Amino acid sequence: MKLTIRFKLNGKAVSAAITPEMTLLTVLKDVMLVNSVKRACVSGECGACTVIVDGKAMNACLILAMTIEDKNVETLENLGAPDRLHPLQKAFVEMGASQCGFCTPGFIMAAKAFLDENPDPTEEQIRVALSGNLCRCTGYVKPVKAVQQAIQEMKDIESGLTPVQAIQGAARIMQGHSAEELNIQIH
Amino acid sequence: MKKQGRGIAGCMYSLTVMNAPNPCSAYVQMREDGSVNVQTGACDIGQGSNTVLAMMVAESLTVPFEKVSVYSADTSATPYDFGTLSSRVTYTGGRAVLAACEQVKGVLLEAAAKQLKTRPDRLSFKAGMIVDKYDAQKQLPVAAAAAISQFVHRKLPMGMGEFYPFNVPVDAQGHGEPADSYYYHATAVDVEVDTDTGVVEVKKLYTAVDCGKALNPMIVEGQLEGGAMQAVGWALREDMYPYGTGAEAESPDFNPNFRPINISDYAIATTLDTPEIHGAIVETHEGEGPFGAKAAGEICANSAAPAIVNAIHDAVGIWISDLPATPEKVLKLLRDQQS
Amino acid sequence: MYEKETYDVIGKSRPRVDAVKQVTGQVQYLGDMHVKDMLYAKAVLSTEHHARILSIDTAEAEKLPGVHAVVTAKDVPHNLIGITLDDTPVLAEGKVRYKGEMVAAVAAETYDIACRAAKLIKVVYERLPAVFDPREAMKADAPVIHDEMQGKDYKGNIHVVPATGELCQKLRHGDVEEGFKQSDIIIEHKFATCPQKPLPIENFCTLAAPDGNDGMTIWSTQQCVFGNAGHLAKVIQMPLSKVRVICPAMGGGFGEKNQLGTEPVTAVLALKARRPVKLELTTEESLQFTGTKHPMYFTYKLGAKKDGTLVAMKRECITGAGAYRSVAMLITMKVTYWGAGPYNIPNQHADCYVVATNKQIGSAFRGFGMAQPTFATEVMMDMLAEKLNMDPLELRKKNIYRDGDHMATGQAVRAAGIELVLDAVAAMAGWEKTS
Question: CB C22 to CB A82 under 8 A?
Answer without folding.
Answer: no
